[in-house]
């Protein structure tokens, strides 16, 4: 029974790392208990655990004291994560009807339980594509991506990383005119997905470019 989406799984992963960090940097039981209580509160606010079995699945998070235990815990809860549903080529073509040659990247070896959204870069057109689901409906945005070779705050995951500028062109109010909107996002979408624990940020990013 799957009871977490990817965003929630990434959130729990961060909380597990907090527990590990507390146990490796402090010997004060009061400090460790305080971190554990904070993590419990954060999880309760983020996840709706419908039954005791789901609570039991996450309970080992509070016993993590070593990197090996962290990895074992994350592996054990992954079976409860709803994976990203890869769209078909036809679905993507309907999403971007003006891009006749658009096609999905190769998905071999990609863990779909780590993806809140799918993104890829087409070197031939210099375009970056982002597709995701909102209430079961496939949505997306694409634009010219400028590799800046600089670090900054990603507007999607809100973390400091190597970023680039995504520029999206839209028809202007007058015939033959266009407006361009842009913002900074992670160059590496895998890293961005791992840091994304608030999916509303992605939706807000796309809405701002529309």
From TrEMBL:
Gene3D superfamilies: 1.20.1280.250. InterPro entries: EF-G-binding_N (IPR010841), EF-G_N_sf (IPR038344). It comes from the Bacteria. Residues 3-85 form the Elongation factor G-binding protein N-terminal domain. Signal peptide: none annotated. Pfam families: EF-G-binding_N. This is Elongation factor G-binding protein N-terminal domain-containing protein. The lineage of its organism: Bacteria, Bacillati, Bacillota, Bacilli, Bacillales.
């Amino acid at each position: 029974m799957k009871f977490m989406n990817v965003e929630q799984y990434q959130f729990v992963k961060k909380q597990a790392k907090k527990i590990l960090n507390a146990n490796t940097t402090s010997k004060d039981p009061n400090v460790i208990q305080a971190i554990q209580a904070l993590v419990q509160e954060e999880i309760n606010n983020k996840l709706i655990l419908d039954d005791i079995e789901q609570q039991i699945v996450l309970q080992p998070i509070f016993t993590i004291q070593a990197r090996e235990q962290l990895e074992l815990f994350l592996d054990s809860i992954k079976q409860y994560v709803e994976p990203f549903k890869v769209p078909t080529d036809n679905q993507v073509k309907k999403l971007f009807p003006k891009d006749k040659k658009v096609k999905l990247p190769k998905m071999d070896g990609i863990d779909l339980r780590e993806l809140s959204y799918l993104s890829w870069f087409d070197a031939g057109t210099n375009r970056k594509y982002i597709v995701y689901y909102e209430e079961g409906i496939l949505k997306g945005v694409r634009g010219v991506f400028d590799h800046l070779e600089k670090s900054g705050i990603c507007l999607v995951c809100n973390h400091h990383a190597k970023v680039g500028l995504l520029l999206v062109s839209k028809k202007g109010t007058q015939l033959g005119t266009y407006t361009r909107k842009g913002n900074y996002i992670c160059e590496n979408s895998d890293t961005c997905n791992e840091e994304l624990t608030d999916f509303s940020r992605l939706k807000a990013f796309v809405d701002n470019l529309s």
